[in-house]
Amino acid sequence: MPKKVKHRKWQKGRSKDRAVETRGTKLSFGNFGLKAESSAWINSRQIEAARKTINNFIKREGKVWIRIFPDKPITQRPPEITMGGGKGAVDHYVFPVKPGRVLFEMDGVKPEIAREALRLAGFKLPVKTRIITRQ
């Protein structure tokens, strides 16, 4: 039997493809949304690129809600540094996404414009996405 390892607070954490999101799975603000279909870490640059794509396509007409915030710090050691000396400095922040999480919501634009804007924003993200609407 392999030795059972306890999960420690300071470990990175593992994103399992089998794990499904339980929070943030339904539209709360807008009529259209972009929902994650796979799991990954999304960093702040990717969120900003998707937001700019949406706003550029809808010509700043409707309203856009960003439902995720990168609050997990990722540390990085400088290159060519020997082992030891402690943990590295914070390099960037990410948001660990599980399947089912709503990433963006929109309202105030025509359905065909909203679908195309969200489709283009999905290309900027490292997860498979699906466009959802309010029933």
Main sheet overview: 4 strands, antiparallel
C-alpha Rg, in Å? 18 Å
- What is the third-level CATH name, the topology? Aldehyde Oxidoreductase, domain 3
Task: Report the total helices.
Answer: 2
Which H/E pattern describes the elements? EEHEEEEHE
Strand order in the sheet with the most strands: 3-6-1-7
CATH superfamily: Ribosomal protein L16/L10
Gross morphology: elongated
Q: Which CATH C-level class is it?
A: Alpha Beta
Estimate the strand proportion.
25-35%
Number of strands: 7
End-to-end span in angstroms? 50 Å
Q: Taking all residues together, what is the mean pLDDT? A: 90
Q: Architecture, according to CATH? A: Alpha-Beta Complex
Brief sketch in words of this structure:
The protein has 135 residues and is an alpha+beta fold.
Overall description:
It is a single chain. With 135 residues, the protein is an alpha+beta fold. It has one domain (32-80, 87-133): Aldehyde Oxidoreductase, domain 3. The protein has helices at 44-57, 111-122, and strands spanning 32-36, 40-43, 63-66, 72-76, 89-97, 102-107, 129-133. It has a 4-stranded antiparallel beta sheet with strand order 3-6-1-7, with helices on one face. Helix 1 runs antiparallel to helix 2. The longest helix is centred in the middle third of the chain and has 14 residues, at 44-57. The model has no long low-confidence stretch (mean pLDDT 90).
